[in-house]
Design brief:
Length: 442
């Protein structure tokens, strides 16, 4: 009887100790919690449990801001991270996200490129001094690096030859989410037979199977595939911009759902831009897309009554109709934004706050943060030692002016005959939870 009572006391003490541990850990930043995952197996299991995540969220629901960055995915001579937000309360990071993109390889590396980012994980391409190539899916904050094997029927030499092919694109990454956690991902390579075609071939690596497979998809009609190098992932769906008429001026968003596709021509959706066949004479910049507050977003600037208006739409349907877009903002900059000037172009939307748009001002050589609701804007320059953002985060800018000057001619609609047109930026946004890389399913 005495022995049984002792066991009950020990069990109660253990339960009390675990409850205290939960309360203490839940009041820490995610950076500290991630570090404590490696203390022991019991702590890792506790932190990774649904119970602890839900409890943490209940205590920190008001802490909405998280760190994020605008990553350079085009010009490899510039920094990987051109704009960074760090110092948010939830993650507790003192350094910008770009500083976490480092990894110690066994051999010296001559080039590392960010191909795309989604849901806190990154697809990286690396070349060694010896010329070997590697693809990694990375959780930079947890320093988890997983090397994606090449397709079994392709050698490294074959992949290099594909990369030299203008019809091959290796920049796709989508995730499968459950309760805000990444439970799977797919790396997507895209191949088209020619620039103008209705056919697409996807080579897909799945974290759930650890294997590659090939899918052939046909669109309703032929498109100019000049912009497949840069894709926008969202909810397991990849989005590209493409053209039905002029290869240099995209007029459609092409989307494919890699977790719920039905195949055939219905699997690959063609969605015309909302200003398709309208505003053609007044549109200032070529079309491009980004994400914000849970939507794929299209923003552009239009000439209007001798001035300019900013118009922003969000994608609410994947039907082949301009009404798939919903107009979110229409702002006359002449009447409400005195002092902003006219020489600016849109960069990205804020990933969480759909009221905030980032513009690059060429005449002021700075990044403009514009609140579309209040019409207030702030100018941030690289020369500033510290840029405080509205939610208390610190904003750092590196190589932005040189970079923006290089891409401006490609954005400018009146120069459609010169230069390539691509999506130049990828938003690396930290999730609201740790999101460790999914393990290979057994």
């Amino acid at each position: 009887m005495e022995k049984k009572q002792k066991q009950i006391v020990v069990s109660q003490n253990r339960k009390t100790g675990e409850e205290a541990l939960v309360i203490i850990l839940a009041r820490l930043s995610l950076k500290s919690i991630a570090r404590f995952r490696s203390v022991c197996k019991e702590w890792k299991c506790l932190i990774d449990s649904d119970f602890f995540r839900d409890f943490y969220e209940s205590l920190n629901s008001s802490t909405s801001s998280v760190s994020w960055s605008i990553m350079n995915t085009k010009n490899k001579t510039f920094a990987l991270e051109i704009v960074g937000h760090h110092g948010c309360e939830r993650w507790g990071l003192t350094d910008s996200l770009g500083s976490f993109m480092r990894h110690k390889f066994e051999t010296q590396v001559r080039k590392t490129s960010v191909l795309t980012c989604t849901d806190g994980i990154v697809l990286l391409y690396t070349e060694t001094i010896e010329g070997s190539l590697m693809y990694h899916v990375v959780n930079p904050l947890l320093q988890q690096w997983f090397r994606i094997p090449l397709p079994p029927h392709l050698s490294a030499f074959d992949v290099v030859r594909l990369q030299e092919n203008k019809h091959f694109f290796d920049t796709g990454l989508v995730t499968k989410m459950e309760k805000g956690i990444v439970v799977g991902y797919k790396v997507v390579w895209t191949l088209v037979p020619r620039v103008l075609s209705s056919d697409l071939t996807f080579m897909i690596y799945s974290s759930e199977t650890g294997a590659w497979k090939t899918e052939n998809v046909r669109c309703v009609y032929a498109m100019f595939w000049c912009n497949l190098e840069y894709s926008v992932p969202h909810n397991g769906i990849l989005h590209w911009i493409s053209a039905s008429r002029n290869s240099m001026d995209p007029d459609y968003v092409v989307s494919y759902d890699f977790y719920n596709n039905v195949g055939g021509t219905d699997g690959c959706r063609l969605i015309p831009f909302p200003d398709y066949k309208t505003h053609e004479g007044t549109r200032c910049f070529r079309r491009t897309i980004t994400t914000s507050a849970g939507f794929v977003v299209y923003c552009n600037v239009f000439s209007y009554n001798g001035g300019r208006i900013i118009m922003i739409w969000r994608l609410v349907s994947r039907n082949r109709h301009p009404n798939s877009w919903q107009l979110s903002w229409r702002l006359d900059t002449n009447s409400s934004l005195i002092g902003l000037g006219a020489d600016f172009f849109p960069v990205v939307m804020h990933p969480f706050n759909s009221d905030i748009i980032y513009l690059w001002s060429r005449n002021k050589n700075g990044l403009v943060l514009l609140n579309l609701r209040t019409h207030k804007f702030t100018l941030h320059k690289e020369s500033s030692s510290e840029n405080k953002f509205m939610d208390g985060c610190t904003m750092s800018i590196s190589g932005c002016k040189e970079y923006m000057d290089s891409v401006y001619p490609c954005f400018f609609a009146k120069e459609l005959l010169g230069g390539d047109h691509n999506l130049y930026f990828s938003q690396y946004v930290l999730p609201r939870w740790l999101n460790p890389l999914p393990h290979l399913s057994s």
